[in-house]
Amino acid sequence: MTQSAVHPTPASPTPEGGHLLEVRDLHVEFRTTEGVAKVINGVSYHLDAGETLAVLGESGSGKSVTAQAIMGILDTPPAVIRSGQILYRGRDLLTQPEEQRRQVRGKEIAMIFQDALSALNPTFPVGWQIGETLRQRAGMSRGDARRRAVELMDLVKIPAAATRLGDYPHQFSGGMRQRVMIAMALAMNPKVLIADEPTTALDVTVQAQIMDLLADLRRDLDMAMILITHDLGVVAGVADRIAVMYAGRIVEHADVRSLYKAPAHPYTKGLLESIPRMDVRGQQLSTIRGLPPNLMRIPSGCPFHPRCPYVQQVCVDVVPHDLVLGDGRTSACHFAQEVRDDSAR
Amino acid sequence: MSDFETVAASEDQAARRGPSGEPGAPNQVGGTSTVTGRPRSLAGDAWRDLRRKPIFWISLALVVLFTAMAAVPALFTSNDPTNCVLARQHAAPSGGAIFGYDFQGCDTYARAVYGARASLLVGALSALLTGLIALTVGMLSGYFGRWVDAILSRVIDIVLGIPLLLAAIVLLKRVASDSSTVRIASVIFVLAVLGWTTAARVVRSSVITAKEQDYVAAARMLGASNGRIMWRHILPNALAPAVVVLTIALGSFIAAEATLSFLGIGLKEPTISWGIDINNGRVHMRESATPLIVPSTFLALTVLAFIMLGDAIRDAFDPKLR
Amino acid sequence: MTAPASPTKVRGETILAVENLVKHFPITRGVVFQKQIGAVKAVDGVSFELRRGETLGIVGESGCGKSTLARLLMRLEKPTSGKATLEGRDLFKASGAELRRLRRNMQMVLQDPYTSLNPRMTVGDIIGEPFEIHPEAAPKGSRQRRVQELLDVVGLNPEHINRYPHQFSGGQRQRIGIARALALRPEVIVCDEPVSALDVSIQAQVINLLEQLQDELGLSYIFIAHDLSVVRHISDRVAVMYLGRIVEIGTEDEIYERATHPYTQALLSAVPVPDPELRDSQKMIRLVGDVPSPANPPSGCHFRTRCWKAQEVCAVEDPATVPRAADPHPSACHFAELRPAAA
Q1: Contacts of A257 in chain C (CB under 8 A)
Q2: Which of A49, B41, C165, C265 is a good FRET partner for A324, with 20 to 30 A between their CA atoms?
Q3: What kind of architecture, by CATH, is found in domain B63-321?
Q4: Which residues form the ABC transporter domain (chain C) (predicted)?
């Protein structure tokens, strides 16, 4: 396969500064008694209106921390934002006073989590919890908030919503709880929805329902979505673009079709080759050797070099910059071209 | 709490997740430093925590001081606490007697130093015996559950309902012997028999937690006997919290011994004990308060030291408080 | 380590047979005078055979009873009724020496590599524990050497024998768990979600290790997982469970290519395929609702409340897991048929 065959659709290219949400060169450290863990090391990505960006990574890659920094919910300490900008509609959230940030949080950008059970307060009925935001922030009356809560529960397809307002979180199944959390996140009509591993704790048939729901809601409400996940299958189903994270860096960034067709970073390539596929038979699983790095001692040069089959001396010495491959693709690998050509073969 | 639930919840979430993002996933940053190769355990964390606490060092120093006093009292005074001369009644400090003399003409300081032995002996042995009872009862009750637990838990409830001092008075009244050894042994026995319940409850709950762990299931699948599972897999994990509770109990046993001796039903002369001296000092308080104040202070410091030490260790071992 | 293959042990013969296994957990009320008010039917009549040298995958969603099944086979739970024989010996009637012998022959790898290893024991003690419980398996003098061999077999450094579990990563810990399961040279290993707690890039390493060990040692696996892709990759035959029952069982090909039970078809169609090109061509069967509570399963066919084919007969008559006309592998559906699109 040649480069021309690569799908040329990085969702909607907008001029510099015109992005809905943009993370620029973010650096975050965790200062612990053990030492300093460099959790985010220069992450940049952007999100345009109406698109779905998948942020893919394994545990410790920094994918969730980036999202927490966007939401302004990092625990500081131990987390310290060393440098970088998070621009929402051109304004830097990091330099805003807390009061203004709170206006953005929930109203403009909302977030849902993997574990719906612990994200919901077990001692209040779900209808009350959905309505609380509306009463507190939109100044709705009790009755209005109630009616809107029913609408929201209908929106996320909770059957017989009106009769379930008074139920408590434990009376809902895992999938239904996830829907309740989505309804809460949607209460203020956010423009950006960050979904952090929204289906990891769910069974496969329920996962499919929730991913469908998220895709429908994104389209119907014209939101942009950041989908944080480790699941390559889930990403393939819904994402427009994908950013692959490793050791606090984005190692590859591409539109989803060209990335799956021909990954241009050895880490992405390794991941794609190491997952068993249900639709491919008798496949030999290749593995990525070794372990993810300790973030207190990130390897020199390219952080992936100790595990990389393409490793050369230059990888040990020099930190690779993002290599632009055209079509809006970048790969932080000295041998990006070569890797992509190998993958496409 | 924030005014917005999604965020409130997420803050909660962020706190639990720590740096790695996924709960339960290998955490390369803090929790388990798998790749640093440096072992890190609960005990290690607790020690790091303790090292920075002045209260831990102060209480530890006091415990060491009083233990040394109990072991080798001659290090602290060259006077004989039993060398009492009525002519020196309530005399001012002189020679080694830095706190003067009491009603009987004995060296107040020397008596307080020599009193440490009986107090610590009673405290330590009662705590040890308490530990044995608590570990046995807590282990059986927690491990076997069902009717064993039902019976033992009710026994714990009943013993817990008996007022310690009242029962101790009733029981010790029956000990007729005035022999020092017999009296010390009786006090230890009575305190342990009445005081093991809190520790047993702690052991029981940590046994129940440990029993549910997968590694216990793994041992069972290998065919390990109940005894082996309890000894190798559960006891080591239940021991630490028990030791903490027992340290605190040790302090209160010392106080209880002093109370019983003060009431004249614990230790008796010629045994030297803070409780006895406090009682004697009280009688002649108007003439000289020092013979009352000195043993009282020694007693208060010892009890406080053990309770603070136990408290500090317990806090350090409790990840929820960190 | 050498394969325990002796001339009498033929690959493909039945090594483990499970017949109509049932486990109901009583739901009780009251503290002193407990009264049973119901039962969670975790495993509700399960039968299958495991053949020597094969991998039987067991898939299903949470609450389907697959983990309880594993615990029953390992005798961590007592079955309510039913029978299981390992090489002809009754698994549930065995006790004493007989049970010890059976345990040596069947071991388990647990899901969570963080809680399955005692944090206060060294790796040497953990892997050596089987030899202490079964002293006849290895004479005392040779135990350390055996432990080191086992570490080597699972791809860990034999010199790390004195380290503690927390000094290893999740994948390495899972290897320690595998080494412990291998210590007594069992012929059957039950793997309960052995890779689901691991990172994607580590999963493949452990799957490959399990496959390699099977080839070298002639092991038979019962591989329990919720990840259908992993199960297809490793299994020769697959059983699909729903609410305590096996609804369909067959070869990997029969289940994944020619499933006749609607639940299996829905389950397979819901698995996300890691290929964006197939995004629109994938025809997903959307199941409505949630899995009913195993304490109160629907009458007749347990799946009927979510099934688009359900008729009156489904509520009345419990479909048997028997070969069906549509394809000759056992399927528990009155209306078993191949999925038109998949054929």
Answers
A1: 276-277
A2: A49
A3: Orthogonal Bundle (1.10)
A4: 16-268
